[in-house]
Amino acid sequence: MFDEIEFEKIKRLPKYVFAAVNELKMSQRHAGADVIDFSMGNPDGPTPQHIIDKMVESVRKPKTHGYSVSKGIYKLRLAICRWYREKYGVELDPDTEVVASMGSKEGYVNLVQAITNPGDVAMVPDPCYPIHSQAFILAGGNVHRFKLEMREDYTLDEDAFFSSIETAMRESFPRPKYLVVNFPNNPTTVTIDLPFYEKLVDVARRERFYVISDIAYAEITFDGYRTPSILQVPGAKDVAVESYTLSKTYNMAGWRVGFLVGNPKLVGALVKIKSWLDYGMFTPIQVASTVALNEDQSCVREICDIYRKRRDVLVQSFGNAGWEIEKPRASMFVWARIPEPLRELGSLEFSKKLLVEANVAVSPGIGFGTYGDEYVRIALIENEERIRQAARNIRKFLKSHGCG
């Protein structure tokens, strides 16, 4: 009999919590249930027409059908530089400080693969987007997780955050080399303002670690809030890189377009590993992405306004149903604490029960980390009428369990 070979790297990855909800969701639908699905952050709107038109125009040119450029065509890298200059007043070198990627997730994972030595430690707040921690596990590193403390209005408790960094520096061996930050945060929607980054850059310089900042939801903001960039801080390029994606901002999730900018050494590491792994995105996609970044941004404001209206309807209607939730000021999600007395179930069992009894699918907070287990993540991907229907279902569900 063949003695099976173990795959230690894969064994280090935890079970994918969301699979249980996804399987139950499909089972419900196969049984004829009308499931209202808030479980995945997959934009439901179309890509703006002018971006599609440019893609079609480019794809008709035979010269665009060959291998592309792994780091991104020059025009796209110039557009990324322009976007940062116009939005944040940040100057970037398109040759040494910018690399395009097949979505920000691919760029992030390959960066981590390129820069992580066996046993290296990365600090990652908990809850977090799962790949933020698991990429280091896949690369043979270790993760020091610490609780992401937030206030009731979903702003960061900065004192607790920096205290956690001090603890990690004091107690972790070897000392951490990297810190991952993600604001507006997925899943918690937590936001920060520029002074936070100013202090973080000082700490990173003093303690000698790199900061990897993910601002995937930077453009989806409400009520006057504007997302800052860590690269706005003088000297940030010495210690930081930042990743972004066109997926949410332009409803281009399936197009797989992202980029990473900042510290030349880290950007160079990603460029080098990508040169071994891929030939870049299909050129017409890159050309269309250039148009997305360079041309009229009114489509971004329209997309953002759709999410704002859905957020307002959801918070109000769910509140009327007996589930009180604070309004986030950014992202396409709502981070909702499970109502009492159902909180004791934990987020996975609560999510299953909500799906079976109310036909409402959400993401269990435990899937994002230990400290997320009292919460669920609700994606704003259903229209307003569907949100109100979900609220009606939830009202009955909560009453049947003695809530509200």
Explain the overall architecture.
The chain has 404 residues and is α/β, with parallel strands linked by helices. It has two domains: 8-46 and 299-400, Aspartate Aminotransferase, domain 1, CATH 3.90.1150.10; 66-294, Type I PLP-dependent aspartate aminotransferase-like (Major domain) (Aspartate Aminotransferase, domain 2). It contains 13 helices and twelve strands. The chain has helices at 8-11, 18-30, 49-59, 74-88, 103-115, 130-138, 158-171, 194-207, 264-277, 283-294, 298-320, 347-358, 384-400, and strands at 36-37, 98-101, 121-126, 142-147, 178-182, 210-214, 240-245, 258-262, 333-337, 360-361, 363-364, 375-379. The strands form three sheets. It has a seven-stranded mixed sheet, sandwiched between helices. Strand 5, helix 8 (194-207) and strand 6 form a beta-alpha-beta unit. Helix 5 packs across helix 9 (264-277) and helix 11 packs parallel to helix 13 (384-400).
